[in-house]
Amino acid sequence: MQVKEEQINEGILLAISGNIDTTTAPVLREKIAQIPDDTAKVTIDFKDVQYISSAGLRELLICRQRFDGDRMLVINVTPEIYDIFQTTGFHTMIPMEVTQDDVATYVHLSFKDFLKKKVEKTPDAVAVADDRGAFTWRDIDIYSQIIAAGLEAKGVKKGTHVALCGANSVNWVLTFFAIQKLGAMAQLMNFNMSAAEVARVAVIGDITHLCYGQMPEMKDEAAFIEAIKACGSPLTEFISIRNDRQDIRERRGEYEAIREKYGQTVREDDPCAMIFTSGSTGNPKGVLLSAYNILNAASASCKDQTLNDNDKTCMILPLFHIFGLVAGLFANAMAGSMIFFAKDLRTGTLLELISREKCTIFHSVPTMLIALMNNRDFTPDKLASVRCTIISGAGATEAQIKMFKEKMPNNHFLTSYGLSEMAPVSTSKYGDTDEHLLHTVGMPVDNISIKIVDMATGEECPTGVSGEILVQGFNLMIGYYKVDLDKQSIDKEGWLHTGDLGMLTEDGYLALSGRLKELIIRGGENIMPGEVESAISELSMIDNVKVIGVPSDFFGEEVGACVKLKDGAVWDEDAVKAELAKSLAKFKIPSYFVIYDEFPMLGTGKIDGVTLKKDALSKIKEKM
User: Domain holding 562: CATH number?
Assistant: First the structure.
């Protein structure tokens, strides 16, 4: 438990977080004892209190003895805590304000209890749907229970590392909750991986069980599993959750015999999920997360999106990624909105689904939005129902955002910034100005701290000066799984060093400058790839661009640009350089251009920068 004291107009505010029990109650007593008797009013904020025991109630009674009448008030009492007050009769002695039953109800729950609460509150509300039909929260509870029984029979128990690997589906959601019911660790893996990559990640995460759905590389199921085994890994069990094997609803009759099972307690702050970084700089790292991390982050995202129970989301964000898990699955779950999983990610399929179901939410990366608008059947009316799109995972250029707003005038575009280790960090406001949308990634979400530090000195940078972005807050990861201390990204003061470069503006927004590891230093001049990419993307013939550093014996590094042209565009390097000279200093203009038909992509929708740079440098070397 923590108690923070703050002076307010009416007197003193005590903000309490955690459990008030036998162990922590003396801390609260000491804090209250330090309050002067003549204080006008003592307000105690229970927003982040998860439990209060008899010992905690006694401390409130003592406080009430000192501050009678209207001199004491307990605010933000959740329905769960109010039940304790009511059971003991303390609601008649302690003045309090009870919170409404909204997203705040869910942020202090384990995923297991989150599902239980949804079933209690809205059992028949449709939560998710795919081409097989709709599933309510009651359905999710029933079928995840059946899947949990199957996993238990395979040896899954509290603490077991279970991989969940497959394209977005209702079965993925059911299996996630089944793993949580058993108190096991859900390890979320990229479904685009090869057998060798699955085996490698299984070693990193000590994974013993693999629940697999549709995977593009799994052409032959048996051969794929044999290939994993041949690579050597701790995997011992392989469990199919593919939709094309069996409709889970055909097993409804199994529920009655097991409906009372799995009553063991799972705490909201238990490590319960692991997301793997993309591994673009080497081996992937396992990011350890709790339900508290994810649900608090989802609560902030729900608020930023202004989600409500009338919304319908076309969900293409991969669920193995933090963006999809937070801004997609659990933000919608909190709001009571409905999620549709498309049967595939073809642009025609998505346009038809959004148009047919009148989807109001569609989060995406820029490459997918561009592909939708380039579809031959695209017309603005097919996306007219969409009111909110968070663009994240890969930065959109100014020219791209302007095009998106032109093609989808009814839509509110939000820019966002986050990492597997902590997301969201910042999000623009709903209905924000074009200036903020085009040049920033929003403001820090509630209860998040951002600090910009000088890369050389480590000193905090003034407003408007670029440096490395450091963050901390409620949704910060626990740490990396089995990674040496000197390679953990959290420092001794609790700050996560992101490796990203940016600055805070005068009005508190965060603007990104680039990646620390991608910074190009040409003859002592620091060049932000993002600035050069933005200038190139303004050119009419450019569809996409990625700027890289090219080794140089003389300058140390020079600027190279990997360019994808629009259909029918003709490349004229001299003309491009002349145009760039109007907006870029001479040393920032690329010395090398490599033209691509397509860029290699990661499963998250980002450009595979490692593969692209390796290929581009090879091509540039051939020309030298």
Answer: 3.30.300.30
